[in-house]
Specification:
It is an enzyme of class 2 (transferase). GO terms for molecular function: rRNA (cytosine-2'-O-)-methyltransferase activity. By secondary structure, the chain is of the alpha/beta class. Helices cover about 40% and strands about 15% of the residues. The strands form two sheets. It has a five-stranded parallel sheet with strand order 3-2-4-1-5, with helices on both faces. Helix 2 links the parallel strand 2 and strand 3. Helix 3 packs parallel to helix 4, helix 9 packs across helix 10 and helix 10 packs across helix 11. The structure holds S-adenosylmethionine (SAM). S-adenosylmethionine binds next to helix 5 and strand 10. The site of S-adenosylmethionine has 22 residues, from helix 5 and strand 10.
Length: about 280
Amino acid sequence: MQRQSSYAKDNGKLYLVPTPIGNLEDITIRAKQILTEADYVAAEDTRTSGILLEKIGVHNRMISFHKYNSKQRAPELIELMKKGATIAEISDAGMPVISDPGYILVQECIKNDIPVVPLPGPSAFATALIASGFDAQPFTYYGFLSRKSSEQKEVFKQMRDFHGTSIFYEAPHRLAKTLKNLASVLPADRQVVAARELTKIHEEFIRGTISEVSTYFAENAPRGEFVILVSPNTDAPKQLGWPELIELVNKNVEDGQSKKDAIKEVAKEHHVSKNELYDTYHQG
Ligand code: SAM
């Protein structure tokens, strides 16, 4: 077990700092302050971030940290933080770590007992989700999918069956093909939203059935950045939590079943492990 205070004094630490996904005014006051005060800014692309920092009036030392150098760069950053340096990690846009670099560095910090301090802020998937009109609980975020059609189809089957909202990112030049592939797996009337150019001047939501949205993009070449959301499968059985499952076991026992049989039956019907249900039942 490890307990880590984000506000331990005089220690090096890693700040994970979200940056705007389009609208520069979405930088937070705190993000600006941390980017100004950190000893270093580790940036995915120092040129892209240099332009952003210039625009928001932040002048600081930058270190390049991207997916191709992160394995080699992470130990160097760890050494700096061990000596007391604070590092603010940013990606080109949105939250670091979310389909962006940062994960390896966070892992290394945790291993080395260096505090990791996350700042809240913009991320494209959460921004799209809250305006999609689909239930936000539960949701599954997939990031970018495989480019292979067969591998995409496996993921699309999960989306087809999932009783929550599914979200993924796609590049504009691949979108029409990916939606066609999605349409081959989903029922034609399943609702889909394409959230385009979020927070920017051309922000737009294209909502409709998968059949409509797929046809639309086959006829109108997609431009800009996209988040794709697939509505929940409302026919799928809702996954019950442990308290509800235990209630069902108790009900079956009241109706005359043995505890063992009741646990076995409820576990089978609700696709949970019999042993886990047994343990949870007897702990409670
Ligand atoms: N770290 C980012 C985040 O927190 O959302 C994601 C970075 S990922 C490399 C870039 C992808 O995010 C884009 O290809 C697009 O799918 C999505 N994205 C980023 N900005 C967007 C925007 N303004 N509107 C729609 N999608 C966006």
